[in-house]
Amino acid sequence: xxxxxxxxxxxxxxxxxxxxxxxxxxxxxxxxxxxxxxxxxxxxxxxxxxxxxxxxxxxxxxxxxxxxxxxxxxxxxxx
Amino acid sequence: xxxxxxxxxxxxxxxxxxxxxxxxxxxxxxxxxxxxxxxxxxxxxxxxxxxxxxxxxxxxxxxxxxxxxxxxxxxxxxxxxxxxxxxxxxxxxxxxxxxxxxxxxxxxxxxxxxxxxxxxxxxxxxxxxxxxxxxxxxxxxxxxxxxxxxxxxxxxxxxxxxxxxxxxxxxxxxxxxxxxxxxxxxxxxxxxxxxxxxxxxxxxxxxxxxxxxxxxxxxxxxxxxxxxxxxxxxxxxxxxxxxxxxxxxxxxxxxxxxxxxxxxxxxxxxxxxxxxxxxxxxxxxxxxxxxxxxxxxxxxxxxxxxxxxxxxxxxxxxxxxxxxxxxxxxxxxxxxxxxxxxxxxxxxxxxxxxxxxxxxxxxxxxxxxxxxxxxxxxxxx
Lengths: 79, 381
Hints:
The complex is a heterodimer. Helices cover 80% and strands 0% of the residues of chain A. Chain A contains 3 helices and no strands. Chain A starts with a helix and ends with a helix. By secondary structure, chain B is mainly α. Chain B has helices at 3-36, 41-58, 61-70, 78-97, 104-120, 127-159, 164-204, 216-231, 235-244, 250-270, 276-291, 298-326, 330-351. In chain B, α6 runs antiparallel to α10 and α12 (298-326) runs antiparallel to α13. Chain A binds chain B through residues 1-4, 7-8, 10-12, 14-16, 18-20, 22-24, 26-31, 33-35, 37, 66, 69-70, 72-76, and chain B through 58-61, 127-128, 131-132, 136-137, 140-141, 144-145, 147-149, 151-153, 155-157, 159-160, 162-163, 166-167, 170-171, 174, 177, 181, 184-185, 188, 251, 254-255, 258-259, 261-263, 265-270, 272.
């Protein structure tokens, strides 16, 4: 019996690393976007604009990571 | 009975299994999104159905593993495949009846292994592949997904701690994407299993060369059956997955779905016959434990773990008995089909006594076969 431990370890490592990265990025983006408004819905000024910009940029990065995931699972893209 | 007729019957039964696989596993992608209100139930299953169909068309790595790896396809007969599928379908419906998210993949593997063992003996089984590509990932994958979900959930809640209320709507939007990705990943993984089985029976019947990939029409019909099954909902299991373990919030739903998605995609990429149910349930338990360890419903988790342990042997025993019956000749095959049909009708009839549908999926956290005395019977499913 031959067990491909390396592939199994890769699956575990990729699962942990990619999930933590995506969730942390999402949490940061959500915090930045949620925190850039006052309780009454008004903006907090320049700092808030920067926070929103960074939040949106993080969401764009996450979108690219999702596209990379799709690229990896579709053999036609890389075989 | 001619070989062509037998192969045709097996393909139809394989597509019925694929349908049960779809509604059994619809919850894997959408349960937490439905539970948190990120998606309306009917919208959720429609998205899941379309993406499962698309996912099933994208890759055939796992299909090849099943058709030419797990069992010796030179010794397998169409009767054995039919018997294996019968065991898997009945186990899938029995666990659906009690709302238990057991693995459709393991039900199929168990049924097939039992049928082959009963008729071809140990020579028909490739133990190395079963251990390395099915059993080992079955243990490792939910553990990894669960531990990952614990760590990621705690980090997420630490980051949003002063803005948790405002962040949750954003996470709900994100859940639409993460749940959709799980559905896509599920399609790439589970759609291929039926393709693998149909390919196996085509090889066994002499209609396809051993070791070859699934044909285009096989890929298409398997993908469509999985999509239709997914759209039908599987609300009993959706309730257990979404509300049975713990009360889930949007950040937890996103975390569980992300962990499941990555694990399924990585496993599919390496050709492991992973159970998406095990992975998703592991991730949901992990994220539930991370936020409110005292509120996890361990009784549900214990019932589910028992079902996981029983799936392979139970489906195997039914598959073995069905295999012995099917090998008696034409009358055996007919008798098996009658038993299978009777089992399907009986289990669906039992479920109709306390139907769970998109209307009442979030009304309770457990599934009963008989309605509670005070509750009204709902129509659906």
